[in-house]
Specification:
Elements (H helix, E strand, L loop, with lengths): L2 H25 L10 H16 L4 H9 L22 H7 L12 E11 L2 E3 L7 E2 L4 E2 L2 E2 L6 E6 L7 H8 L3 E2 L2 E2 L2 E2 L4 E7 L2 E3 L12 E9 L17
Parallel strand pairs: 1-12
Antiparallel strand pairs: 1-2, 1-6, 3-4, 5-6, 7-8, 8-9, 10-11, 10-12
Helix pairs in contact: 4-5
Keywords: Membrane, Transmembrane, Transmembrane helix
């Protein structure tokens, strides 16, 4: 084999190893939130298995129940940003009609990107929406960082919507309100999906894989325009 072909083969092998490592890391995120060691990880795995098998599969049953109670309209605070992740993630998930899990579900696994721009300034979508760090529980809808990527990792396949995310976040969302920004205060709320304007209540938008949802808030005569398309990181 020629030298340059050897180099290419080595690079391909290294890339494959890196991709496999990233996949393992994503699967184990729920077990490593607090930087715990291998012993705690093993305990968490056992707890997850017991919770999933006892009583006919509690996680599966709870998630199935949530399918009938999920809300479409966002229920949350009308405070001004910044909007932090809620202190009680489990309570906010319950308000959204979602059940907390002991591990990320695998039946449905998609990612949607969310951005919010208010008066020309980006509003941060915080990490740990839908993640109860104290109880070590996680919602099927959650964030791991501040990229705006919404993770949908559910043990059952069902539609999820943006209203559920905002309810978990504890931020009001409707056609005429985003947090403290409302049409009654002279603001205009414009929603874009993959760069195209979407009419109606943004809370009803169904989450779809690699979809880019942008909420742009303007005041007065300012014209809303869609932000640049989101660049998805490798591995998503």
């Amino acid at each position: 084999m020629e030298p340059n072909k050897n180099i290419d083969a080595a690079r391909q092998k290294a890339a494959g190893v890196l991709a496999a490592q990233k996949a393992r890391e994503r699967r184990n995120r729920i077990l490593t939130w607090s930087g715990v060691g291998v012993g705690v990880i093993a305990v968490a795995v056992v707890v997850g298995v017991v919770a999933g098998t006892s009583g006919g599969g509690n996680a599966q049953a709870a998630a199935s129940k949530s399918a009938t109670t999920a809300v479409s309209a966002a229920q949350g605070s009308t405070q001004a940003p910044p909007w932090a992740a809620p202190a009680d993630a489990s309570a906010r998930a319950q308000a959204a009609g979602l059940s907390m899990l002991t591990a990320e579900g695998t039946a449905e696994h998609i990612h949607t990107h969310l951005s919010i721009t208010a008066d020309g300034k980006a509003v941060t979508v915080p990490a740990d929406i839908g993640i109860d760090l104290n109880a070590q529980l996680i919602s099927p809808l959650h964030t791991h960082d501040t990229t705006g990527i919404i993770h949908v990792e559910s043990p059952v396949v069902k539609p999820f919507n943006l209203g559920e995310v905002f309810t978990e976040w504890n931020v009001a969302l409707s056609a005429g309100q985003v947090g403290s920004y409302g049409t009654s205060g002279g603001y205009t709320i414009t929603t874009f999906v993959n760069g195209k304007q979407r009419a109606g209540d943004p809370a009803s938008i169904q989450l779809a894989n690699h979809e880019d949802v942008d909420i742009v808030i303007t005041k007065g005569t300012a014209t809303a325009s869609a932000p640049a398309a989101f660049t998805w990181p490798a591995g998503y």
